[in-house]
Amino acid sequence: MRQKINIVWFKRDLRLSDHQPLKHAFSNGLPTLLLYNFEPLLLEDAHYNERHWRFVYQSLCDLNQQLDRFNSCVYIFKQNMQSLLEELHTQFEIINLFSHQEIGLNNTFERDKAIKAWCQHNQINWLESPTGAVIRGKKNRNNWNECWQQTMQAPIAIPDWKHIKTVTLTHYQSPELPDNYTTDDDNFQLGGPRLARDVMHSFFAERGKGYQKGISSPSLSRTHCSRLSPYLAWGNISLRQVYQLAIDAYHSTHPNKKGWKRPLAAFVSRLHWHCHFMQKFESECSMEFKALNPGYHAFPYRDDAKVTSDIERWAQGQTGIPIIDACMRCLKATGYI
User: Fold this and answer.
1) Comparing C-alpha atoms, which of 116, 120, 52, 122 is closest to residue 86?
2) Which domains are delineated in the chain?
3) Which is deepest, 80, 122, 235, 312, by most CB within 10 Å?
């Protein structure tokens, strides 16, 4: 008789706190298998390269270091997602699959539709928790701002780690990953929830005071912007956690917080923009394939012999225009601009 289990499928939510799927899984009493899958579908996608997968790998290492005290881990795989679930379902009886909704590319949307059909066929309950304040399937903005505020002000979802029941894969072998995924590059921001918290706290303690003035400067922004973008993108920290700390700092009466209100207000407005544009992508997903502005559908784009070489010079920071070249070279070398 197969053991009945939950599965928590990590995607762009590589953290252990404010994690609704983990909270759901631990609350029903079944043993839970935690997994992350380096999907060939995404490894081969031109939107990603080694810097993204290196950040993911670093994040997974951080998670597993933290999970060690619970005698647990996130199992790492590299294969087609449906095939992986089928293999696991032959070993265990999967009762529940928990994950966050993924707001992304069409290929992940098509994958999710296939996984949903497979779960329904196998009578598996797949519960997807919302990502931030993005509302799946919403076609207008009616009441969206109110929903955003409610989501950001809601209590942090704290999984009860005292009640975790783990699943052990006895014949598990970790997949081979390229060296450039598993070798740190100190020129880039390193991944992981603990580093995310360090970066967040340094921003609200000191760096953020110069946010409003530094945001438009290629050099000053490296210090005075939050530097939280990769941590939010891969879910090392939730937008709600950042928002609530920002609001606490905004209302602080500590003498050291004098002069902080305007930069913090500007920062919070950009947190709102974050979900606003993700919602736009969710509601108007065709923008992956065609210009959002119809004026560009018949735009007279260049089609001469030098187009490819000109684009390559731009990408390599060799246009001869100093500010553009400096920014592009910085982006290539550090992943940040």
Assistant:
1) 122
2) 4-129 (3.40.50.620), 192-296 (1.25.40), 300-336 (no CATH)
3) 235
